[in-house]
Write a structure and sequence with these properties.
By secondary structure, this protein is of the alpha+beta class. It has 13 helices and twelve strands.
Amino acid sequence: MKIALLACCFAALATAADPQLLGMAGAEPKLIAGVNVAQARVSPLAQFLLARMPQDDAALREFTLATGFDPRRDVTELLMVSNGQPGHPLMLARGAFDPRRIVEAAKSHGFTGETYKGVELLIHSRAHGGALAILDNSLAAFGSSDDVRAAIDRRSSPVSLAPQLFAKVNELSLTTDAWVITSAPLSELGRNVPSPAPQGPINGDILRKIERSSGGLKLGSNVEIRAEAEMPADRDATALADVLRFLAGMAQLNMPQNVPNPLQTLNIAAETNLVKVSISIPQAQLENLINSAPRRGQAARRRPANGKL
């Protein structure tokens, strides 16, 4: 019995977020997100989406020939962290990289190199301070030059996430293929939160009140999404739940008539000061919905040249 229990524990830990990537993220990022690319890539939905991609992409083929790197095949895990400031978030990637070929290709396209603690930092003058570092043949970092240098520092001296944040990361990375956690109000994370509109059904103030949030996506025979938002008070949670229900109702009104409603299983609940959202959509149903939408360029081809119907 004990052996079986230990085996289950180790099997679960094997799917958690990469410890080295987490150690390079910093103690208290305001936003952290991860994707288990290797696990998601073999899901039925991912295979369906890959099959819809152009099979003969000249730019991608040229990039792969130059670098030896194919993002569709060679990335196994991604971690993104942000301190909430404008600019590049820090992206950390686990995968298969050829440092020599990538450095040579980057330098031939305008990047300059500088060495930092034994790692070559690739910086492009047009990338607004963005830098790329291939730390070894399985680890890469991209972000502002300062953030990439800090990540290189933390590679040799890992920094533990704050305990509460680490517990949430562990929970979501064990149970989902893609996840995101914010530990700061949305108003501190970007400028795209809607402005207040007291007379309308969507009040930007209520979105700005979200103090923390998290969510995850699990791909399988059903595509499962769950999210949670923490509000200052119970009444704020009730107000946010009402806004989300309104948006869901509007979305259902605009669904194609010839496909089943994918929002039938949507559940939105306010529990004290938390708003919890969950939905489970059959993968085949989601494929039908995607197939019913016109592919890029089809709508433009159908529209008459004079723009009139």
